[in-house]
């Protein structure tokens, strides 16, 4: 009796222990299930978008790359006369576009049918909507340029269940889990069937998993095919179903399921699958497409429409048959869908046209948001990047460097190849529209536009000129464009010796005007100008222009003997191009969260540092440099538009620069070796052709805008040698002056201003 | 010979002055629609059209949309003074005084660089600046700015009644 009692107690304790163990296990598993399901289910990479393309009458759509853009946005040529979203139609001199909906910061665009009428030169003549009403502008949605992935490297677009078409849900349920809405997470008949099959085989050969089990496996467990894992999967599926509705589970499944691979990035969920395979939103999927996606779930590689199109088609048709048998579709729908081709878009390998820009952006954003948020919260980052400009910039740098290596074989080096960088920005707004940080991002991620500190050499001379020509704190500027500078040997004592600058051509030219000195980039007179202005004033000017790098007040400062980045120098030139404002550089405009709320807006911001008339004086020098001076190669290469620019070459030809601008575009180019080996060629040979190529490809050889001299300037004829007003017997050329700063004295014996001159002047002012 | 050429130039200038000299201020567009109509086809006109949309958004109280649209206008034409003016209005509405002053300064400068001088628009700039100064408590400066504005557009059709609702920041 006692033994029996003891045995019973023992059994009860054991049973209780086992029960407690089971309960404990259930509690642990339940917590595990809930921790994930109640928290953030998925890590969504942030998406980096380009700026939108705005079409307007007068725009050259070929140069703007409209068709290429549509293709990159996965617009397809229309298959029928009725244009659908995501399709375009080329017909003679017009392009019809079925625009897709797009959610911009602050506004939602629901899509539209637009007609773009073109002239023979591919310029937009007019824009109309489907009803024939004229439109002033049409916006083509931004391109997805890149994504910021976390370590898991998963691409996913979250979809809500109500966005998923019933065809896709029916197809998935029909092939993966017909009884989904009837079981409690585990389908016993299927489990028993699978168990028997596995026992017969002596290993796990059949799954029998429900959608809930598949979801549990993907969320919480490994892919190991063991009985323990199957047991845990079943238990957790039951727990999940106890706590959540079928719709919640199905929605999670639709967002989680693995459906393909794009390079190193895994494609998850039906939202991303719809984009990846068909270039459309999930809600726009057709029956045949839905069936194909449902078929891919069983094995994304095995049934890949790219790798195994026939197998993929067979499975799609099998699913269509099942849908027909189950009465989910009728015979007409079945036949129609079965007759359709696979319909997948061309296989796209990720092509990030702007890897240096994106990395620059990522570093900028991660300081604010942190890497974790950037790679998991599904932010949308609307950048200032112009993909057409970026592609042209890539091309200009690549072909420019190849040409140099071809023409100067000594520049071709395997170990550390010749490098180049280019930055293009909108001067007034400071928007960076293209950025190339090196020759090959795959080989070197070092960004030579933003990270490399190099000597600017002669590209710094315009800063010296502005220091000389602007008033700054003075009532009058210390120099004018007509000031005469001495170009004779110069020796300046410096600690440890003396500094003796030389001209590029090794010669001295006697007396030259400030204009000639800058246009011809003569070192000696500019060095004298720098000494006359004083290094402190040059540094103050440089700081006002936004140069932040270290600058020492030494005589060689005027010739650019210090180090800056290309981006820094480009920003300084933007002050000239914009008429005196220092723009805050911007690589992005808005950051938007998953729900479309704008988290951050990078406002247009600038500081006025100089008067437009002051900067125009320097701009006129740099226009002259292109027309007559060291930048005249730009004209030889065929650019005819209004442009200002300056070459730069540093000691031993280590760095070659060209920075140039039109009123609406600024481009800086640097060429050199990372290790500082000499190029043996100047900026006009190495960097200028890259600038020319980009400018002409992007804006055309005629340019698009003109510099307008401000009213605070006057033009006076000046005698070159004396720097005085021209007069009888001493003719001169017209030169710009800030009002009130022109020389009053004439070099001629006759009075300079006659009554007629005064009348002419009066009319000039009136005009 | 040189004198002949100079007299020739004088005659040409006289003729040009007759054509170009403002007679009644009608060359100076009063509304954004007028500005768009007289702008050259291309980026300038497209940019002004976007400013019209920005102004409409501003009128509807959608400051974010107005700001975003005006910024897009500047992307197409970075020297569009109307865009800066609308941005200044948005900044003023958003209590961003510093930004508003910067945009106004830029707008004024760009208006002054236009061939017609845009005196009525500069008057609007000055009035908005006066509003902002007043808000800051600088009544004297505000008064001065309003006087300047009145001098600029008095009798030249720059009254509020001719403005589109978007420009109702004017007193």
Outline the structure in words.
The complex is a heterodimer of chains A (767) and B (171). Helices cover 38% and strands 18% of the residues of chain A. Chain A is an alpha+beta fold and 767 residues long. Chain A starts with a helix and ends with a helix. Helix content of chain B is 69%, strand content 0%. Chain A binds chain B through residues 51-52, 54, 56-59, 104-107, 136-137, 384, 426-429, 431, 578-579, 581, 589-590, 598, 601, 603-608, 612, 663-664, 704, 708, 710-711, 756, 759-760, 763-764, 766-767, and chain B through 6-7, 9-10, 13-14, 16-17, 20-21, 36, 41-43, 45-46, 49-50, 52, 62, 64-65, 67-68, 71-72, 74-79, 87, 99, 102, 105-106, 109, 112-113.
From the structure above, extract its key features.
heterodimer, A: 767 residues, alpha+beta, Penicillin-binding protein 1b fold, Beta-lactamase, 5 domains, six-stranded mixed sheet, five-stranded mixed sheet, 18% strand, B: mainly alpha, Serine Threonine Protein Phosphatase 5, Tetratricopeptide repeat, 8 helices, 0% strand, globular, disordered N terminus, disordered C terminus
Q: Averaging pLDDT over every residue of chain A, what do you get? A: 89
Q: What is the number of helices of chain A?
A: 25
Q: What structural class do the secondary elements of chain B suggest?
A: mainly alpha
The major pleated sheet of chain A works out as: 6 strands, mixed
Brief characterization of the structure:
The complex is a heterodimer of chains A (767) and B (171). Chain A is an alpha+beta fold and 767 residues long.
SSE arrangement:
The complex is a heterodimer of chains A (767) and B (171).
Chain A: H1 2-38, E1 46-49, E2 53-55, H2 61-64, H3 66-72, E3 76-77, E4 87-91, E5 94-98, E6 102-104, E7 107-109, E8 113-118, E9 124-129, E10 134-135, E11 138-140, E12 144-148, E13 154-156, H4 166-176, H5 188-201, H6 211-220, H7 227-243, H8 246-256, E14 258-262, E15 265-268, H9 269-278, H10 287-296, H11 309-325, H12 331-339, H13 355-369, H14 371-376, E16 380-383, H15 387-407, E17 419-426, E18 431-436, H16 461-469, E19 484-487, E20 492-494, E21 497-499, E22 510-513, H17 514-519, H18 523-533, H19 535-544, H20 566-577, E23 581-583, E24 588-592, E25 598-601, E26 606-608, H21 612-627, H22 633-636, E27 644-649, E28 655-662, E29 665-672, H23 683-686, H24 688-699, E30 713-718, E31 733-738, H25 755-766
Helix pairs in contact in A: 1-7, 4-10, 4-11, 6-7, 6-8, 10-11, 11-12, 15-24, 16-18, 16-19, 16-21
Chain B: H1 2-20, H2 32-38, H3 43-59, H4 63-76, H5 81-93, H6 97-112, H7 119-135, H8 139-153
Helix pairs in contact in B: 2-3, 3-4, 3-5, 4-5, 5-6, 6-7, 7-8
């Amino acid at each position: 009796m006692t033994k029996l009692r003891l045995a019973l107690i023992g059994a009860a304790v054991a049973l209780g222990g086992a029960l407690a163990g089971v309960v404990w296990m259930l509690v642990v598993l339940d917590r595990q299930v809930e921790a994930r399901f109640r928290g953030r289910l998925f890590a969504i990479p942030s998406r980096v978008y380009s700026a939108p393309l705005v079409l307007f009458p007068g725009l050259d759509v070929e140069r703007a790359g409209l068709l290429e853009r549509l293709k990159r946005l996965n617009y397809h040529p229309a298959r029928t006369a009725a244009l659908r979203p995501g399709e375009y139609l080329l017909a003679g001199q017009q392009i019809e576009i079925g625009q897709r909906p797009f959610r911009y910061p602050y506004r939602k665009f629901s899509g539209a049918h637009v007609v773009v009428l073109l002239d023979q030169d591919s310029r937009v003549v007019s824009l109309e909507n489907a009803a024939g009403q004229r439109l002033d502008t049409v916006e083509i949605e931004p391109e997805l340029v890149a994504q910021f992935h976390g370590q898991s490297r998963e691409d996913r677009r979250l979809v809500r269940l109500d966005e998923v078409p019933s065809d896709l849900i029916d197809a998935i349920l029909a092939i993966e889990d017909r009884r989904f809405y009837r079981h409690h997470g585990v389908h016993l008949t299927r489990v028993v069937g699978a168990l028997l099959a596995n026992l017969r085989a002596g290993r796990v050969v059949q799954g029998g998993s429900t959608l809930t089990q598949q979801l549990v496996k993907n969320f919480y467990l490994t892919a190991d095919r063991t009985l323990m894992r199957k047991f845990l999967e079943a238990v957790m599926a039951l727990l999940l179903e106890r706590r959540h509705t079928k719709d919640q589970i199905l929605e999670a499944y639709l967002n989680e399921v693995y459906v393909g691979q794009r390079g190193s990035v895994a494609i998850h969920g039906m939202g991303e699958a719809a984009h990846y395979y068909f270039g459309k939103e999930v809600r726009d999927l057709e029956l045949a497409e839905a069936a194909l996606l449902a078929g891919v779930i069983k094995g994304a590689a095995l049934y890949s429409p790219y790798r195994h199109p026939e197998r993929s088609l067979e499975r799609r048709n099998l699913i269509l048959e099942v849908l027909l048998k189950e009465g989910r579709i009728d015979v007409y729908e079945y036949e129609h869908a079965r007759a359709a081709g696979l319909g997948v878009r061309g296989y796209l390998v990720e092509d990030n046209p702007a890897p240096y820009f994106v990395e620059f952006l990522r570093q900028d954003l991660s300081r604010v948001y942190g890497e974790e948020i950037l790679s998991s919260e599904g932010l949308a980052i609307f950048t200032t990047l112009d993909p057409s400009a970026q592609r042209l910039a890539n091309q200009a740098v690549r072909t420019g460097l190849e040409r140099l290596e071809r023409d100067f074989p000594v520049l071709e080096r395997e170990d550390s190849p010749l490098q180049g960088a280019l930055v293009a920005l909108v001067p007034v707004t400071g928007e960076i529209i293209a950025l190339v940080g090196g020759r090959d991002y795959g080989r070197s991620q070092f960004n030579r536009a933003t990270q490399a500190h190099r000597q600017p050499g002669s590209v710094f001379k315009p800063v010296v000129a502005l220091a000389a020509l602007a008033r700054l704190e003075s009532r009058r500027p210390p120099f004018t464009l007509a000031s005469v500078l001495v170009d004779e040997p110069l020796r300046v004592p410096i600690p440890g010796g003396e500094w003796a600058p030389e001209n590029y051509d090794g010669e001295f030219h006697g007396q030259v005007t400030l204009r000639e000195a800058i246009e011809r980039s003569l070192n000696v007179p500019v060095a004298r100008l720098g000494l006359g202005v004083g290094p402190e004033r040059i540094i103050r000017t440089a700081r006002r222009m936004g140069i932040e790098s270290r600058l020492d007040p030494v005589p060689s400062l005027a010739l650019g003997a210090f180090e800056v980045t290309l981006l820094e120098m480009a920003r300084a030139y933007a002050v000239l191009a914009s008429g005196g404002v220092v723009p805050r550089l911007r690589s992005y405009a808005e950051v938007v969260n998953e729900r479309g709320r704008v988290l951050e807006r990078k406002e247009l911001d600038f500081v006025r540092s100089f008067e437009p008339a002051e900067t125009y004086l320097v701009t006129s020098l740099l226009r002259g440099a292109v027309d007559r001076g060291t930048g005249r190669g730009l004209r030889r290469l065929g650019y005819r538009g209004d442009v200002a620019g300056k070459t730069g070459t540093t000691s031993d030809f280590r760095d070659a620069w060209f920075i140039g601008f039109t009123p609406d575009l600024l481009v800086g180019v640097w060429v050199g070796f990372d290790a500082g080996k000499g190029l043996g060629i100047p900026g006009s040979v190495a960097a200028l052709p890259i600038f020319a190529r980009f400018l002409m490809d992007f804006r055309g050889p005629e340019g698009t805008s003109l510099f307008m001299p401000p009213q605070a300037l006057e033009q006076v004829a000046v005698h070159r040698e004396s720097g005085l007003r021209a007069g009888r017997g001493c003719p001169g050329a017209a030169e710009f002056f800030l009002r009130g700063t022109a020389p009053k004295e004439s070099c001629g014996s006759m009075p300079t201003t006659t009554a007629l001159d005064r009348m002419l002047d009066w009319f000039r002012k009136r005009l | 010979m040189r004198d002949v050429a100079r007299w020739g130039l004088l005659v040409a200038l006289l003729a040009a002055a007759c054509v170009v000299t403002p007679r009644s201020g009608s060359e100076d567009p009063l509304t954004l629609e007028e500005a768009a109509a007289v702008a050259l086809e291309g980026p300038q006109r497209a940019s002004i059209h976007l400013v019209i949309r920005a102004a409409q958004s501003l009128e509807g109280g959608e400051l974010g949309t107005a700001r975003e649209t005006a910024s897009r206008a500047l992307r197409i034409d970075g020297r569009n003074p109307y865009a800066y003016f609308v941005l200044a209005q948005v900044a003023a509405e958003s209590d961003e005084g510093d930004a508003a002053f910067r945009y106004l300064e830029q707008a004024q400068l760009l208006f002054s660089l236009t061939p017609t001088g845009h005196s009525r628009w500069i008057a609007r700039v000055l009035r908005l600046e006066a509003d902002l100064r007043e808000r800051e408590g600088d009544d004297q400066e505000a008064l001065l700015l309003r006087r300047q504005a009145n001098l600029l557009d008095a009798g030249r059709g720059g009254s509020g009644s001719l403005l589109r609702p978007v420009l109702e920041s004017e007193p």
